[in-house]
Amino acid sequence: MTLLNDKIAIITGASSGIGRAAAKLFAREGAKLVVNGRRQDALEVVVAEIEAEGGQAIAISGDVRDEALQASLVETAVSRFGGLDIAFNNAGIIGDMAPVAGLALEGWRETIETNLTAAFLGAKHQSAAIGNRGGSLIFTSTFVGHTAGMPGMAAYAASKAGLIGFVQVLAAELGRQNIRVNALLPGGTDTPASITNAPDATPEVLAFVEGLHALKRMAQPEEIANAALFLASDMSSFVTGTAMLADGGVSISRT
Ligand SMILES: NC(=O)c1ccc[n+]([C@@H]2O[C@H](COP(=O)([O-])OP(=O)(O)OC[C@H]3O[C@@H](n4cnc5c(N)ncnc54)[C@H](OP(=O)(O)O)[C@@H]3O)[C@@H](O)[C@H]2O)c1
Predict the structure, then answer these.
(1) Which domain holds residue 113?
(2) Which residues, if any, are the signal sequence (predicted)?
(3) CB count in 10 Å sphere of residue 35
């Protein structure tokens, strides 16, 4: 018996990093998937890998800031697989990094719209589709803006902390329908988005970021996917409204 046997799930940000790892894990655990990112070619690679392992996934590329795209992810889950049980709203960007005094409004808006407004649009359509069948909505937040103020990351921190407040209200609204809603807060994770993989990153940057964590390393995307699987599955049947850290102790470490 697998943890997501015959469950139907949407995963955004599935073309890379944490979402890609989650797509492969959720499929292995029996879920049928609608996967999203902006890059269709990268999504098709993920779908091919899932199908090669006997899983089922459909790639729908598009921008999560587009309400029509969010609606189409849900419509595809319903029309192709028969409903919706789980959504891992994981797409996100760090966006422009600058001190607040030097941060352009355009950059602020892009980050807020991608990381926060898109989550609202997703939840709106996903919760309506799940209705009374029960389910799990997961939103990828971060420790930045929750337990750490990191210079230059104001828009990112505000967008991701905003998700935690959003999750609390949504969990309260949807609890009677047995729809659980949680935020997942990874620590530094070795993905293309990490500042440690930026073109100008040095070994010193990597050592610094690793050293911030109690475990003195970064996460692999598969480790964060495991935490998402917990929140998606009945293993977390009494967990809702939380901001769940999977952060290698970056929030508590002062050494
Ligand atoms: N890596 C870390 O250290 C870390 C730590 C804490 C939280 N997080 C969060 O974890 C989530 C996943 O990030 P990651 O580290 O796995 O980064 P990643 O490898 O860059 O993946 C980001 C994903 O989001 C998608 N995406 C970005 N903007 C999008 C948009 N407007 N519409 C649709 N899809 C979009 C990307 O797809 P396309 O490129 O195909 O559009 C990609 O699949 C993000 O929300 C991030 O903020 C990451």
Answers:
(1) 8-246
(2) none
(3) 31
- Give just the sign of the alpha carbon dihedral 144, 145, 148, 149: positive
pLDDT at 200: 92
- Among residues 88, 143, 156, 166, the one annotated as catalytic is 156
pLDDT digits (tens, 9 = 90+) for 5-20: 999 999 999 999 999 9
* Among 181, 191, 251, residue whose Cα is nearest residue 218: 191
89 Cβ inside 6 Å of ligand 1: no
Instruction: Tell me which residue has its CA closest to atom 32 in ligand 1.
Output: 63
In a domain, 253, yes or no: no
* Residue 186 bears catalytic tag: no
Residue 121 located in a structural domain? yes
Q: Does residue 15 line the site of ligand 1, with CB under 6 A?
A: yes
**Does residue 110 belong to any structural domain of this protein?**
yes
Q: Residue 251 domain-assigned?
A: no
Question: What pLDDT digit, counting tens, does each position of 137-184 carry?
Answer: 999 999 999 999 999 999 999 999 999 999 999 999 999 999 999 999
